[in-house]
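Researcher: Re-running this chain for the archive, since the previous output was lost when a drive failed. Same request as before.
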Amino acid sequence: MNLKRLSIIAALLLLAACGSTGSKDSAPKNAPDVSSVPNAVPRDEPRSKYGNPAHYEVFGKRYYTLKSSRGYHEKGIASWYGKKFHGRRTSSGETYDMYAMTAAHKTLPLPSYVEVTNLTNGRKVIVKVNDRGPFHGNRLIDLSYSAATQLGIIGHGTGMVEIRAISNGQVAATPVTERDETRRSTGPVGLYLQVGAFSTAHSADQLKAKLQHDIGDAIFIIPLQKPSGNLYRVRIGPLANVEYGDSLASRLLDLGYNESHIVVE
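Model: Regenerated structure tokens:
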């Protein structure tokens, strides 16, 4: 791919993506009842011509598009977008419809299909990922108005979710037709701010000591055993809510901690 074409694609992605850029969005006035809007149905589709560059940059940060959604499984913070972007072109070239079951993601191939579970109340939806975003550092996925409403995160603005990629033929294994029975808590969920991860305990201890000097929050180290060796993750938390996590991440950035991000476990 030549540089000129790559630049054009990156520009189109930036213009089309929902990207939580901090500008105000809103829910529709006199919105219809979207509780019965059906889930997206996974099907085999050609990839978007302009939505899948090998990499692209937004606000100075580079993102790498995954070659496949197969096996993708992650927890994080979901946000939503609505009236402001309704009717605009998405990064895949489709028109954004806030009443459809769709979503935006920074790295999944366009299109992809994912099951999204609200970890607070157990609600599940299946959405088609057809857009890029959100470009707020601590958000994992941006949901359409209908999807966010069915998951119960519209009022809060954000929610802790689990995302699992699915493909054609997998829907039957997911109890999406029994959402009323699954609308319950999935158990305790923790919200943390991870400030660093190291291959040695000594480096993690050094960062912990520095953080303890700079802030008053609880800081701890969580080891993770990997085939390549142990990983020592330095985290702050549990956090009271997403808003506090955002505020703390911004404060840490001002203090020179550039790698912090919210973790849901």
